[in-house]
Amino acid sequence: MKDLEEFFQTRFDLERIPIASDLSVKEVTVTIEDREFFEYLKSKINVDRIGEVVFAIRDGEEVLVVRQKEYPDKIYRIPSGGIGLNENVDEALEREVKEELALDIKDFLLIGVIKYNLVWLQEHFDFYSFVFLIEKYEKDNLAKTDGEISEVIKVSLDELKNLCDILKEQKGFWGDWGKFRFYSTSLVYEYLVRKKIN
């Protein structure tokens, strides 16, 4: 696992980023069954992004989750956004939080990193998620969001666990998408449960 942490440190500039002492580092293989979803990912990865930032915005004992208009019923997830090809991880985080939620972040903590091996038949590629916890932020009333998010709600930890289960239950295109999104959402859930216990 230490080698994986060193790999992230060298491939991505994490020097200015505060990292949790119990950083969760995962390497997962996601076998994709729907060609449309694989082509969708392929059109994005290493074309306009090298990875993504996932941002868990905490409000007391609750966390923000989002949905977009095209999602199936009851689907919500922890918000995320792409890291541009020549963009630092922390710059992508600040930009994406403002674009998606019109928030200025005041403090953040890297709580997890996921290296995905995305596989469809004989093709595969890697993708990286940097998962952050944000507890200090303020609304930027002048910021314009990119309009991708159609709804934002706050959920308890129990509700977040239920949303993880719903992500895993999807079928077809949304089944592959749900498998992919499950890992970052569940990482946030697991981290917050550990933090609550300690």
Which key features would you list for this structure?
Nucleoside Triphosphate Pyrophosphohydrolase, single chain, 198 residues, 7-stranded mixed β-sheet, alpha/beta, globular
Account of the protein in words:
The chain is an alpha/beta fold and 198 residues long. It has a single domain, classed as Nucleoside Triphosphate Pyrophosphohydrolase (Alpha-Beta Complex), CATH 3.90.79.10. 35% of the residues lie in helices and 36% in strands. It has helices spanning 2-11, 35-42, 89-101, 157-168, 172-197; strands at residues 19-31, 51-59, 62-67, 80-83, 103-120, 123-139, 151-155. Strands 1, 2, 3, 4, 5, 6 and 7 form a seven-stranded mixed β-sheet that branches. Helix 4 (157-168) runs antiparallel to helix 5 (172-197). The longest helix has 26 residues, at 172-197. It is globular and about 45 Å long. The model has no long low-confidence stretch (mean pLDDT 88).
Give the strand content: 35-45%
CATH third-tier fold name: Nucleoside Triphosphate Pyrophosphohydrolase
**Overall 3D geometry?**
globular
What is the string of SSEs from the N terminus onward?
HEHEEEHEEEHH
> Percent range for helical residues?
25-40%
List the helices and strands and how they pair.
Layout: H1 2-11, E1 19-31, H2 35-42, E2 51-59, E3 62-67, E4 80-83, H3 89-101, E5 103-120, E6 123-139, E7 151-155, H4 157-168, H5 172-197
Parallel strand pairs: 1-5, 2-6
Antiparallel strand pairs: 2-3, 2-4, 3-7, 5-6
Helix pairs in contact: 4-5
